Amino acid sequence: MTDVSATDETTPRFSELGLHPLVLKAVEAQGYEIPTPIQAETIPTLLSGRDVIGLAQTGTGKTAAFALPALSDLAEAGRADDGPFALVLTPTRELAIQVAEAFTSYATELPDFSVLPIYGGQAYGPQLAGLRRGAQVVVGTPGRVIDHLKKGSLKLGSLRHLILDEADEMLKMGFAEDIEEIFSQVGEDRQVALFSATMPTSIHRITGKYLDDPQEVRVAAKSQTGANIRQRYFMVQHSHKLDALTRILEVEEYEGIIMFVRTKQATEELAEKLRARGFKTAAINGDIPQQTRERTIDMLREGKIDILVATDVAARGLDVERITLVVNYDIPHDTESYVHRIGRTGRAGRSGEAILFVTPREQRMLGSIERATKQKVEPLTLPSVEELTNTRVEKFTKRIDDVLATTELSELTEVIEAYSLSRDVPASNIAAALASLVLESNTLKAEPMPEPARRQGRDRDGGRDGGRPGRGGRARDENMTTYRLALGRNERLQPGAVVGAIANEGGITSKQIGHIDIRSNHTLVDLPKDLDPSVLRKLSHTEIQGRPIDIRPDSGRPGRPFKKRNFDKQPGDGRNFRGDRRGGKKFGGRGDRPRDRY
Ligand code: AMP
User: Fold this and answer.
1) What span, in angstroms and rounded, lies between the C-alpha atoms of 62 and 11?
2) 81 and 204 together in one domain
3) Residue ranges of the Helicase C-terminal domain (predicted)?
């Protein structure tokens, strides 16, 4: 067993891992600076041909950890004659699509590469056509893979790589038999990589039976942080991070900020967007020469800029007392990196603030961070439209106060009085006209946050094999009824936990459980229409994570808000929002800061 912890100076570069040059080129184009710990450890092992068990969850970079070696091998060996070269099994269709996308992005330099996701809930036609054309990599949910094996449309005779992603989730969802069946159809001459966030005995059973002297790799969880750093998180889809960030920055108190993103390109992109919004921002990343980086850091130290957007590599050892806030715009790949990042604030005994953006699919990492730092990471509530507007009015009023208190204005006052008399316009109208020039806007009103898009792009949100896009009220399958559980994303509910609880407590099989749609404060689950009332009675006493699931038929009406954690409410939805500021403190700092422009 190998424990791997945060990336540091000893971490190898991608070019030192032994990847095929064509794969390496694609990785470099992705803007990744260095391998994540799980990648640094598993890539060389997989390239050497040994089986691997990786204890890693989403967000650690596990997809590249198994995709890059498989693609390197493919680049070396050329395509298989009969059936795919690599098969990846995933618990959900969302993950299947996402993994297939990742393969595509790492295979841009491989000639004629094709990857095919196959999952339940999708018509067979396109999948059959794709399989006939011959995909080198197939990514699928176990049930659908079995269906294709039975139909003869998928052959595993030439398979060289069998990869199980989120193996624990697959077992929780009742795919154990299917997985064993798949193993039995794969020849001896194949390599197995199994990734799982946890290692229940059911996984040990599979690895003991089917893996050959596997190397176990896990991301070590030994970290703690200074207690002088307050940690908060905000659950947000990737596409809404910038909006959320600018709202938070309007009401947060800060001097200097460091913001962490994943790639070199992202440092430049985010810095550019923040500059366009009036924040004095610069980017540093591993591509920028050391001297320039140091000059930029000095600018932060001297207050010439307020925000530094950085990658982990570029921010190593950075010590600037003025940093009072660390924003993890992208969640780090491992808890050690998180601890290093937030350690950039709270220097010299001062207190610091850390804000973490978490997308719904990264919730597990949040739990790991809490465990590793032995501290609660508190939910952050976005400031409401009213609060934002009030803050803007307050700041603008203060600017007027400051000018009136410090500047000799008699000459200009005469001009305004003359204007007012000659045009017969009240002084307040003239002042408002001038204010609109200063503000470059005729309003201080904040806009509501855009509504979060449902299940778009790469944000995986707890769907299940055979799942269908979001909907309200009724089940799509006429033999099913939709039930509502009183827990959701806010309680970090995972689909596996829903299946586990309902199957175990209700005494039904996981196959009888249909689509699961985890929403912010409730969850919709499709169950058979003819469910015995005794099952429902049993389920009515069921708890998940110590909370009653309060199962009841879904009326299709919006859920009751869950009082304790209202962090993902959006402003403008008619409910009351409280900012997460500490009482009594005034907002704003130095007068020339962009956020103080009102
Ligand atoms: P995963 O844990 O595989 O879901 O990956 C999480 C995210 O990290 C994905 O958005 C990847 O594109 C990104 N990623 C993976 N490896 C690296 C790396 N070495 N450097 C930066 N980002 C990475």
Assistant:
1) 16
2) yes
3) 244-389
Q: Whose CA is nearest to atom 6 of ligand 1?
A: 59
Reference 579, options 396, 388, 376; nearest CA is 388
- pLDDT per residue over 123-178, tens digit each? 888 899 999 988 999 999 999 999 999 999 999 988 999 999 999 999 988 899 99
Query: pTM of the full predicted structure?
Result: 0.62
Identify whether residues 368 and 483 lie together within a single domain.
Answer: no
Residue nearest to atom 12 of ligand 1 (CA): 61
Beta carbons of 327 and 355 less than 8 angstroms apart: yes
Ligand 1 in reach of 263 Cβ (< 6 A): yes
Average pLDDT of the chain?
83
User: Do 29 and 157 fall within a single domain?
Assistant: yes
Distance (angstroms) between ligand 1 centre and the Cα of 59 equals 6
- What number does the ligand 1 atom closest to the CA of 62 have? 3
Q: Is residue 524 part of a domain?
A: yes
| Number of domains present in the structure of the chain | 4
- What's the pLDDT tens digit per position in 74-99? 999 877 667 899 999 999 888 999 99
| CATH number, residue 23 | 3.40.50.300
Q: Is the CB of 57 under 6 A from ligand 1?
A: no
Based on the fold, state whether residues 207 and 322 are members of the same structural domain: no
Per-residue pLDDT, 562: 35
Question: Which amino acid residue places its CA nearest to atom 18 of ligand 1?
Answer: 32
What is the atom index within ligand 1 of the atom nearest the CA of 35?
19
Instruction: Starting at the earlier edge strand, list the strands of the sheet with 256-260.
Output: 281-284, 307-310, 256-260, 323-328, 352-358, 229-235, 378-379
Domain ranges, residue 412: 385-439
Phi, psi of 443 (to 5 degrees): -145, 150
Q: Where are the beta strands (DSSP E) in 50-188?
A: 52-55, 86-89, 115-118, 137-140, 161-164
Question: Measured from the CB, is residue 63 less than 6 Å from ligand 1?
Answer: yes
Write out pLDDT tens, residues 445-475.
988 877 654 433 333 333 333 333 333 345 5
Q: What is the CATH number of the domain that holds 465?
A: 3.30.70.330
Q: Which of 30, 237, 329 to mutate to test the pocket of ligand 1 (most atoms within 8 A of CB)?
A: 30
Tell me, using a 6 A CB cutoff, whether residue 225 lines ligand 1.
Answer: no
CB 36 less than 6 A from any atom of ligand 1 = yes
Question: What number of residues does the chain have?
Answer: 598
pLDDT digits (tens, 9 = 90+) for 382-414: 899 999 999 999 999 999 999 999 999 999 999
Q: Whose CA is nearest to atom 15 of ligand 1?
A: 61
Q: Which atom of ligand 1 is nearest to the CA of 105?
A: 12
CA of 332 to the centre of ligand 1 (A): 9
CA torsion 294→295→297→298, rounded to 10°?
Answer: 120
